[in-house]
Amino acid sequence: MQYKHAFHAGNFADVHKHISLLQLIQALQKKAKGFVYLDTHAGAVLHDLAGAEARHSNESDAGITLLESNLAQAPGPGHAAIRSYIEAVDRIRRDHGNKRSLYPGSPLLAATHLRAVDQAICVESHAQTSRALQRMLEHSASLVPSMPRVVLGDGYHEIRAQLPPPLRRGLTLIDPPYEAADEEQQIAAALLQGLTRFETGVFAVWYPIKKQYDTDLWLARVLRGITRPTVTIELCLRQPDHTAGLNGSGLMVVNPPWQFDTEAAAWQPELHALLGGASGSLVKWLIHEQS
Ligand SMILES: C[S@@+](CC[C@H](N)C(=O)[O-])C[C@H]1O[C@@H](n2cnc3c(N)ncnc32)[C@H](O)[C@@H]1O
Fold first, then answer.
1. What pLDDT, on the 0 to 100 scale, is given for residue 57?
2. Pocket of ligand 1, candidates 124, 137, 174: which has the most ligand atoms within 8 Å of its Cβ, to mutate?
3. Which residue segments constitute the domains of the chain, with CATH numbers given?
4. Distance between alpha carbon 129 and the CA centroid of its chain, in Å?
5. Which of 93, 117, 130, 217 has its Cβ near the most Cβ atoms within 10 Å?
6. Ligand 1 mean position to 42 CA, how many Å?
7. Band of pLDDT at residue 59, cut at 50, 70 and 90
8. 8: Cβ below 6 Å to ligand 1?
9. How far is CA 51 from the centre of its chain?
10. Collapsing DSSP states into helix, strand and coil, what is residue 102?
11. What is the pLDDT of residue 76?
């Protein structure tokens, strides 16, 4: 069955992942030299949160919609990481007829933040989604200084094909649907191969948190054989053993940019509070930087 991110677009995990993504991009842009952004599981450019698929589960009600409404009532302006994400979503909506129900996927969110010196490659395995991605990115050209290259194919294969990038600086986002029985093995193999080809690249892997115990074992298995510095950031709205299903959102980052961890330690608790969380957030080094 074809995974449809439209059912989950704008949910709290998307919010957490997309703030983290913009933080990674901004950190890499502290240097003038360009970098390559490789989005291995790109998905769609824009989702309509008022559309039938999004309304089927109403997940955005506890995500972007709740965040925007709580931010509007908050006494302060909010952490810069949260603010710049909200501003990015707003800018994209303004560019598309100011339709408040639109929500961008990672390709457009990232592309609107890239500079002319940066490059993006967006990989999507579903032909129709990939064609729509290409069309919609072109439609958003005024917002995108460096037009991403859309590749119809397998994101894990493209890690091998595209790395190391000629620019020798790169950020790879691995955001799979977790529907394939061997997704874990594919992620682990792709990470190892990616790091063998491009040891200093930044690799970010999104993962769902249902039960914390299972998540910790999963992280340990995926990181087997990896020696590069790795940090993980997690946001749990419900206790990570609640039976509700998706309790939290995690992002494991290999070779994190400087201060990504300390920044996350500041914005995650604020995001947790704004989303009415009942559990917490954490920043944890899984492999420490060798001194
Ligand atoms: C979780 S969604 C991506 C969401 C997107 N990254 C975002 O943050 O807006 C996963 C996407 O990956 C696509 N996909 C599934 N397996 C893939 C593969 N092996 N390579 C590339 N794309 C894949 C699915 O069709 C789906 O559009």
1. 82
2. 124
3. 5-205+262-267 (3.40.50.150)
4. 18
5. 130
6. 5
7. very high
8. no
9. 22
10. strand
11. 83
